[in-house]
């Protein structure tokens, strides 16, 4: 079925921010809207893939034909991704919090009582790097995003190598670009050996282009 080239494939997508709790009423988060990841999940489903969307807190509706697993923290996101394996392709579009609070308080922290509290942070697991590690359950195609505010190309090349993923889409999220929360995006696409600047387009069009690339990759090597 040429119009459903991803049928029979399982695609795992992460999207949205994570919320890392400080206490029962506060958390550390970021500006990710989840729009790009949700658009990718929708585009892959439209091409016939079985899609698992592991989503941090967003206000977006679940795209048609997509199975969503809701998570809050990075640790939960990794566990949900691992539980969703095996997958043919993993696309990590989530803006995962780099750190979580080591000693989350079980009760609301109080302002009274002198000095502001000091938060001790510990590093979160890197979901993209973990999914990219060699092993029986490694998806044959692992795709990451690199959100950078300067020297996009060099940072993206280094990040792709460091994470061990197969493809990377690098976007400039610097002040004034309005990528976070906006509907437009502009990316550099890196596969094994080439770097292609894609023109500025809607996040839904980036998603469709990426889904078409994925379909082409799987049709050339089943
Ligand atoms: O290191 P950085 O956060 O810039 O890398 C971005 C890429 O890594 C994105 O694809 C993001 O989804 C993924 N990532 C992840 N787990 C983390 C941090 C980033 O999957 N803890």
TrEMBL record:
UniProt domain DNA/pantothenate metabolism flavoprotein C-terminal: residue ranges: 6-216
Record key words, sorted: Decarboxylase, Flavoprotein, FMN, Ligase, Lyase, Magnesium, Metal-binding, Multifunctional enzyme
Residues where CTP binds: 98, 108, 125-128, 145, 159, 163
Record EC number: 4.1.1.36, 6.3.2.5
Full-sequence range covered: 178 to 399 of 400
Reactions performed catalytically: (R)-4'-phosphopantothenate + L-cysteine + CTP = N-[(R)-4-phosphopantothenoyl]-L-cysteine + CMP + diphosphate + H(+); N-[(R)-4-phosphopantothenoyl]-L-cysteine + H(+) = (R)-4'-phosphopantetheine + CO2
Note describing how the cofactor binds: Binds 1 FMN per subunit.
Functional pathway: Cofactor biosynthesis; coenzyme A biosynthesis; CoA from (R)-pantothenate: step 2/5; Cofactor biosynthesis; coenzyme A biosynthesis; CoA from (R)-pantothenate: step 3/5
Similarity-based family: In the C-terminal section; belongs to the PPC synthetase family. In the N-terminal section; belongs to the HFCD (homo-oligomeric flavin containing Cys decarboxylase) superfamily.
Region (Phosphopantothenate--cysteine ligase): 11-222
Its job: Catalyzes two steps in the biosynthesis of coenzyme A. In the first step cysteine is conjugated to 4'-phosphopantothenate to form 4-phosphopantothenoylcysteine, in the latter compound is decarboxylated to form 4'-phosphopantotheine.
Name the record gives this protein: Coenzyme A biosynthesis bifunctional protein CoaBC
Cofactor: FMN; Mg(2+)
